[in-house]
Amino acid sequence: xxxxxxxxxxxxxxxxxxxxxxxxxxxxxxxxxxxxxxxxxxxxxxxxxxxxxxxxxxxxxxxxxxxxxxxxxxxxxxxxxxxxxxxxxxxxxxxxxxxxxxxxxxxxxxxxxxxxxxxxxxxxxxxxxxxxxxxxxxxxxxxxxxxxxxxxxxxxxxxxxxxxxxxxxxxxxxxxxxxxxxxxxxxxxxxxxxxxxxxxxxxxxxxxxxxxxxxxxxxxxxxxxxxxxxxxxxxxxxxxxxxxxxxxxxxxxxxxxxxxxxxxxxxxxxxxxxxxxxxxxxxxxxxxxxxxxxxxxxxxxxxxxxxxxxxxxxxxxxxxxxxxxxxxxxxxxxxxxxxxxxxxxxxxxxxxxxxxxxxxxxxxxxxx
Amino acid sequence: xxxxxxxxxxxxxxxxxxxxxxxxxxxxxxxxxxxxxxxxxxxxxxxxxxxxxxxxxxxxxxxxxxxxxxxxxxxxxxxxxxxxxxxxxxxxxxxxxxxxxxxxxxxxxxxxxxxxxxxxxxxxxxxxxxxxxxxxxxxxxxxxxxxxxxxxxxxxxxxxxxxxxxxxxxxxxxxxxxxxxxxxxxxxxxxxxxxxxxxxxxxxxxxxxxxxxxxxxxxxxxxxxxxxxxxxxxxxxxxxxxxxxxxxxxxxxxxxxxxxxxxxxxxxxxxxxxxxxxxxxxxxxxxxxxxxxxxxxxxxxxxxxxxxxxxxxxxxxxxxxxxxxxxxxxx
Lengths: 368, 331
Fold this sequence. Notes:
The complex is a heterodimer.
Chain A: H1 2-9, H2 23-46, H3 51-70, H4 76-110, H5 138-169, H6 174-184, H7 189-204, H8 209-233, H9 237-245, H10 250-261, H11 263-277, H12 282-287, H13 306-316, H14 319-367
Helix pairs in contact in A: 2-3, 3-4, 4-14, 5-8, 5-11, 5-13, 6-8, 7-8, 8-11, 9-10, 11-14, 13-14
Chain B: H1 16-54, H2 57-60, E1 64-65, H3 76-83, E2 87-88, H4 91-122, H5 125-140, H6 143-169, H7 186-210, H8 214-222, H9 227-256, H10 259-264, H11 283-291, H12 296-327
Antiparallel strand pairs in B: 1-2
């Protein structure tokens, strides 16, 4: 235990960091950036570079010019390093801009048609051109949730089984299964829709929520299997050994020790899968279509869903219907993000739990 | 010196309950394999008629005409005769899919490599975690919303870029146009597709880069290298295969994308390599477009198109995942 006390003694002592950025440097950098931004704005007024994208190009060029000037007394290597730092930073910003723009657009355009009834009423008695206080997307939300629930019920057990196969059973086909799961993640959504159309919709003779849910299940399975595998890998081998040592067979260890340890992680796998498929449009256009009213029966014919609701509202093309489409997008995006954050939360606790469990096991080992 | 002791060979005997358990789990794991086989099987089965009738010209030809669509409706006897006149082939759509996907990858790969390097090596530690989870969130945005955004927000900007390209580089056949209407062109659609693909490729690239052995990077610094020196001589060579795999995954996604392209691209059944012209092709969105009012025979042709798309994307994805599996040794 010598090492422990040694680290304890130095706890609370911060090492000096003379290279750390001080407050005044940060202030200087900020004011410089603002000045450059203004100069870039002036450039857009007098040159063909126009609008926000022209401004961004001007801003980048000014920054690079400044960096080159700053490092003129250093060697070629240092200069290149400094310039590339700016280039990578701007590439990263550029990569994030579309997403930010989408988020802002959805918020700005989507809030107009929101009122409490939007979540509870359907479009049976209203047309897309009606005022925003009539009609809503309640039927679409319900339809989406029903189909996603069907997909989850189908895929979660299968995904967990394939996860168990890859981590516990480790049979001869491990490589093949992993390979297939990874390749299946790339099946185009429209192909999944076609598949369900030929196997379910045509024999049944009608479009249905069940078909939509199964199409989503095809797309959801790879995500769930892969996440379940990742989660099951977190289970420390100590726990398995402990199970075996207590005389449990493999199946008992898997079901009573391994699975309960990562319960929340497996739920995470399901939620991530849901977040992945709830916005899929193409397969639903081929399997469940769209209606204007609430449908609770998953085998009773066409069912509305959020994506197809947004799609049809957008294709309708009037100002009011487009606004409704954006509001639908807002709800959809909120659902996706909600599921995502939930999955993150649960996943974090699962990883933590697995870690603390293994730490406890190690402590026990040391004590004995 | 005594030889090092070797571990005793363990003989594992599974009880009957264990054997049943293992068999059930194996069966569950093999459903994904079965599912893939079923998809391929059903698509082949249902599209065989189309392939038998049109043969290879289904893939090379450039005509899509369904004679069965009777405007008046009814007259089934007329339909049977008229149906023989219909021709289905998807050559321009396949080429168009590749063109749009390649434009997207051309834009997305540099962006995601730069973005991944920034997140992993330049970003302040404080925002590192935020950026990583933002990336995951961005990958979860439904493509439908990308399509809406593309048509209502991005199109004016994309059209301006296209006009600029055509102005300055119009003498190159690739950038020439017949009509100066740049909206709904493969270029603008490709830009939106790039935005859609970037989160996927970036997160794969970032993950690969983060696995670079720390001591190799530190060695670079110890030898007096700059950060860029370390990235160029260690990080990029180390992550090469992973980044290629990520790009392939993105390509697969770009090839199979349906709704965003449906909204962003003007589908025209004609071979065209003028990427700024308001005419392009795409297999996936063609399926969605024609499906609504398709006759039985046309549906069979659409399923054949789906089969072609399925084979192309599956090949791309299999190459990608075999690269991934080779580059990440697992226990």
